[in-house]
Amino acid sequence: MATSTTTFDIPALGHEEEKKPLTPGQLIWRRFRKHRMAVSGMISFGLLLLFIIGGSYFVSEERANAVSLTDRLSPPSEKYWMGTDSTGRDIFARMIYGGQISLFVGFTAVLLSVTLGTLIGGLAGFFGGWLDVILMRFTESMLSIPQLFLLIVLGKFIGRNIDTITILGKTFSGSVAIVILVIGFTSWMFLARIVRANVLSLKEMDYVSVSRSLGASNLRIFFSHLIPNTMGIIIVSTTLGLAGAILSEAYVSFLGLGIQPPTASWGNMLTAAQTFIQKGSWWMWVFPSMFIVATILSINLVGDGLRDAFDPRSTRHL
Amino acid sequence: MWSYIARRSIQALFTLLIITVLCFLLTRYSGDPLAQYAANPRMSAEDKAALRERLGLNAPLYVQYFKWLGLAAQGDLGQSFFSKQPVGEMIKQRLPNTMILMLTAEFFTVVFALLLGIISAVKQYSLADNLITSFSFVGFSMPIFFSALGLLLIFAVQFKEWGLPYLPTGAAVWDKSDPVEYIKNLILPVSALVFIQTAGYSRFVRTSILEVLGLDYIRTARAKGLTNRVVLYKHALRNAALPLVTIVGLDIPFLLGGAIVTESIFSWPGMGRLFWEYAQRSDYPVVLGILLIISIAVVVLTIVTDVLYTFIDPRIKLA
């Protein structure tokens, strides 16, 4: 897998004058740059971020949540660039603030699931024995339930126990925290399996035995040898996981279990679209969907490029 | 072989046991199943307490769990709090609808995926390949409600407005005696599913064919002077399709659960919608029953797929 010791077998480098050996990070960046699709994915993701973050300097959050019944269900116009929803809220403004929530949920949920996956997979692989058996059976059990079913059940389970919370002077309907927890808890399993497999093979390496014979503790071996050498896998999985988490948020919010209005999220904006699409309100569907697809697509492209960059031996899919 | 199956089965039982504990805890505490009586003026507080006691909702948790597990092991999944029907019956009513929807979708998915996958592998880096690859990337990044709502908007709503022949938006009235209506209702949800699923599958077929085409035996076949067509369909495709068997085998049990979102959008009376409706009511026997059936299917079919694979591909030996 992507260990930092395999960086010199790249043919392209052989022809060049070597001044200073490149760091693994630089090498990865070099390979990533060559991946045209991945670079365009990164650029479009950057533009999306610019829209979501920059947009909030021009459009206030009040505007995103302001109800105007006289303007309800109006198609895109000069006043409302993307039309309005069923209560007359400006969809353009809601795209900006909904995007912030969707991406915030995606990032934090992925952080949670990557932490869980790395710890569970790492511990199972490192200690083996009963711990391994129990943790892996648990992982397998979670994998045997379709994710959306798990999301719903877990959402209902946690949903009972959290009220509104206030972070940084902003009141979130407790739903934001719930959605983050639910997505984080239901998406760590694949990573756990990969990390476990990787740790299993790494721990037999000579440098680990050397480190151990020099008196390094388990904790030190785990965090300064095994985890850093698994980083490539973890980073790739985080990127692809981010796409998955944003999709999951859209799914649970679409079903009405996730982020609760008036707080906008790309997912819950589509819930209303489902009802009104039968009356021909296409703009309620088109804009949130487009942004979701564009976001997921660019993240997936970046993830694909990263995978090839971290592991030059993997077959190129593009 | 038999020892492998035996070992996997024991592991599977253990996994299933964990699943039942997990699901029981999650569903039992996902809300009050008797909430529907909360606003009932004819029921006094004592009545409610008595009902709770009679239904065994006050018993210690482990007693409730083992009681449920004992009955479930005998095939009795309990009774819905809301509809008062046995859960097994409710699932039996919905299962055929889900199977029709999902298997039809799976069938067309495999057909289209093979078609697109072959074209794009054989004509690698051509315009067609680039188009198909872009399609699969976009489709892969698309939530199902995107395709479902989009199709609904175009073929049901706009077509009606434009005076063209349009498709129904959902099976509001369920009538199996009218096959034409049934198929009409089937078209949109199936298309929505096929559109999304084909994206992932076709990419997979493409990679798999490209891998096989690079192997020595293909070069040998070409060297013998066989035509491209024979090499592709008789030699390459057979081996390239093998991994597809695994994917389909592992996907089928997940189809059992139905597509919650697709079924909700098109009012399709399948398992996914049953699950969603009763999960909202915290009617845990129904939710638990569906989860149990899906997980058994997943666990069993995983083993079956692994074993079957050794017959299809003799190169694989189970240890």
Describe the structure.
The complex is a heterodimer of chains A (318) and B (319). Chain A is an all-alpha fold. Chain A has one domain (50-56, 88-310): MetI-like fold (Orthogonal Bundle), CATH 1.10.3720.10. Chain A has 13 helices and two strands. Chain A has helices spanning 11-14, 24-34, 36-58, 61-65, 91-127, 129-143, 147-159, 175-186, 189-202, 206-213, 218-254, 266-276, 282-310; strands at residues 165-167, 170-172. Chain A has a two-stranded antiparallel ribbon. In chain A, strand 1 and strand 2 (170-172) form a beta hairpin. Chain A is globular and about 75 Å long. The relative contact order of chain A is 0.16. With 319 residues, chain B is mainly α. Chain B is 73% helix and 0% strand. Chain B has 13 helices and no strands. In chain B, helix 4 packs antiparallel against helix 10. The chains are: A mainly alpha (318), B mainly alpha (319). Chains A and B meet through helix 6, helix 7, helix 11, helix 12 and helix 13 of A and helix 1, helix 5, helix 6, helix 7 and helix 11 of B.
Distance between the termini of chain A: 20 Å
The average pLDDT of chain B is 84
Sheet bearing the most strands of chain A, described?
A: 2 strands, antiparallel
Q: What fold name goes in the CATH topology slot of chain A?
A: MetI-like fold
Global mean pLDDT of chain A: 81
Number of domains of chain A: 1
User: Oligomeric status of the shown chains?
Assistant: heterodimer
Greatest chain-chain interface?
Answer: A-B, 42 and 52 residues
